[in-house]
Amino acid sequence: MSAAVVGELQGVGVILGRQEVLKGLDLTLSAGEFVALLGSNGSGKTTLVRALLGLLPVASGEVRLFGTPLERFRDWRRIGYVPQRFGATSGVPATVEEVVLTGRIAVARRMRGFSAGDRQAALQALELMGLARVSRRRVSQLSGGQQQRVLIARALVNEPDFLLLDEPVSSVDPENQKMFAQALERLSELNATVLLVAHALGAMEPLVHRTVVLDRGTVVYDGVPRAEHEDEHAHHHPRVMHAGGLPKER
Amino acid sequence: MEVFGLEFMRRALVAALIVGVTAPSIGVFLVQRRLALMGDGIGHVAFMGVAAGLFFGTSPVITGIVAASLAGAGIEVLRDKGRTASDVALALIFYGGIAGGAILAFRSGQSSKVLGYLFGSVLTITSQDLLVLVAAGALVLATVILWRKELFAVCYDEEVARVSGLAVRKLNFLMALAAAVMVGVTMRVVGILLVSAMLVIPVAIVQQLSNSFRSTLVGSMILGGGLSVGGVLLAYHLDTSPGATIVLVAIGAFFLAALLAQARERRASPAA
Q1: B264: Cβ–Cβ under 8 A, 6 or more apart, which residues?
Q2: Rounded mean pLDDT of B8-18?
Q3: Among A164, A194, B101, B199, whose CB has the most other CB atoms within 10 angstroms?
Q4: In 3-state terms, what secondary structure has residue A108?
Q5: What is the DSSP letter of B166?
Q6: Residue B161 forms contact with A (CB below 8 Å)
Q7: Which pLDDT belongs to residue A229?
Q8: In this complex, do B211 and A55 lie within 8 Å of one another by their Cβ atoms?
Q9: Is pLDDT at A163 greater than 80 in this prediction?
């Protein structure tokens, strides 16, 4: 093995209610990989992500993050997580900046307010997602796509080494998708590992190194992305062609 | 004004101010988590604590706060355990509190005092009560100030908070305890039946007009203090029950804020 192991599931079984949602699943994610996790509804994609983060009890097997068993893992600043749903839009109002700042909890000092450095980091993450101008706006006033980008900015705020995204673009228009793909590309260049749960890859397709397909709680495909990217240029080359000055259409 | 010359009025106004300012500071987190009615549940059990205080001849305020804290802790444990069974368990605890309290209160031979705890009797607050109020209020306020960003993170998105390494269970527990202490304190002023109103209504008013969590928190504390003191003064002049007057004034303010928010929205989007 060349690259360091970032996330690891070994024989992981998860039972929810009476249903066995993951069945003895093995998966290893290495540093710098961009992995798309695909599969139909109910195939266990979200459960896999949640098991990897310790949000679900694991019935059997072992989960490790950065080589540390999950129970003993404390280095949460290295993790960025974008959950599937949008949490608490209609509760008490919160500004875009306030939401993104909650992502700084992993690094901020306890029992005091956020520092200037925390705010700076939040602003940078918002700039990356094209939201700096609305940082003082109420989150619930933004469009669905913008709200989704707020959550992504929150996950990016500590420049994580491992980013887990659970269908982040399911309700995002093409414009937002493009911006999102750019942000992920930058993170990928910093050698971060990305695990992306998705139905369709859209603008993210050129970034994906590896596809894992789940079906009824087991891995049924694990390898290079299928379809048109199965040539030897499958890594980063599609973008290089853009930089080479091909006319940009659309 | 001559009201400030009256010893009992001075005590009443200080008590109202403490409760008015402090209650929304923890209430805002309850509203954020959609647990606006949690205060009511805690209050039911606090009633048993008050009755126990009457029965054993100790300070009902202190026994009320102790019972409320136990209830807050118990509710949090049940909430953490799971969803389906906890609903019924909560109902059993709440009604058990009221029923047990009623029996103790009538056995104590002081059932005439019960009304004061159900609807509040801020005008009969003793200086010993006031000391308890100051101490408990300071405790709640300190909790909110020290852990405000952690509490907000947990209330906003519990799972992301967990993945940020926060001790979510401990923070939830802390929040439940702070709410419980607040309920114990608040019942002396507005009464057990209206406790939740003080925690929730100022927040509900301010959140219609604010954009940020921070301004909602600060705004509802200021407004809560104002409504509370204003309500006591109004009650003195109208000769009405202070607790109920505070709550009705607050509800009036809620509708006023709703009108304001509507007008603002209409101005923001002149079309339609």
Answers
A1: B209
A2: 94
A3: B199
A4: coil
A5: -
A6: yes
A7: 42
A8: no
A9: yes
Whole-angstrom distance, CA of residue A53 vs CA of residue A47: 10
Residues of A in contact with B165 (CB under 8 A): 74, 76-77, 105-106
Token digits for A156? 């990016």
Per-residue CA distances from B113 to A49, B243, B264 (Å): 56, 15, 46
Smallest CA–CA separation between B244 and chain A, in Å? Answer: 25
The Cα–Cα gap between B92 and B97 comes to 8
Contact criterion met (CB < 8 Å) for B163 and A105? no
Strands A60-65 and A68-69: antiparallel
- Across-strand partners of A39? A214
- Closest by CA to B190, choosing from B19, B58, B35, is B19
Q: Which residues of B touch A91 (CB under 8 A)?
A: 31-34, 155-156
Let me know how long chain B is: 272
Tens-place pLDDT, residues B110-138: 888 888 889 988 998 999 889 999 999 99
Q: Which of A56, A71, A81, A102 to mutate to test the interface with B (most CBs of B within 10 A)?
A: A102
Query: Running DSSP on this structure, what letter comes out for residue A160?
Result: -
Q: How confident is the model at residue A190 (pLDDT cuts 50, 70, 90)?
A: confident
- Amino acid B4: pLDDT: 82
Residue type present at position B181? V
- Name the residue with tokens 């993104």: A100
Residue A194's H or E segment, with its range, is strand A193-197
The closest CB to that of B32, out of A74, A88, A154, belongs to: A88
> Residue B88 in contact with residue B225, Cβ under 8 Å?
no
Please state, in angstroms and as integers, the Cα–Cα distance from residue B124 to each residue in B53, B128, B195, B231, following that order.
17, 11, 18, 16
Asked if B157's CB is within 8 angstroms of A136's CB, the reply is: no
Residue A1 has pLDDT above 70, yes or no: no
Distance between CA atoms of residues B41 and B39, nearest Å = 5
Residue B160 to residue A87, Cβ atoms within 8 A = yes
Quick check: B21 and B91 in contact, CB under 8 A? no
Answer whether residue A249 shows pLDDT above 60: no
No. of helices (H) and no. of strands (E), chain A: 6, 10
- Cβ distance B148 to A94 less than 8 Å, yes or no, reads no
In the stretch 84-123 of chain A, residues with CB closer than 8 A to chain B read 87-88, 91-95, 98-99, 101-103, 105-106, 108, 110-114
Between residues B153 and B75, the one the model is more confident about: B153
B173 inside 8 A of chain A by CB: no
pLDDT at B93: 86
Query: For A95-147, how does the pLDDT look when each residue is reduced to its tens digit (9 = 90+)?
Result: 999 999 999 999 988 888 899 999 999 999 999 888 999 999 999 888 888 88
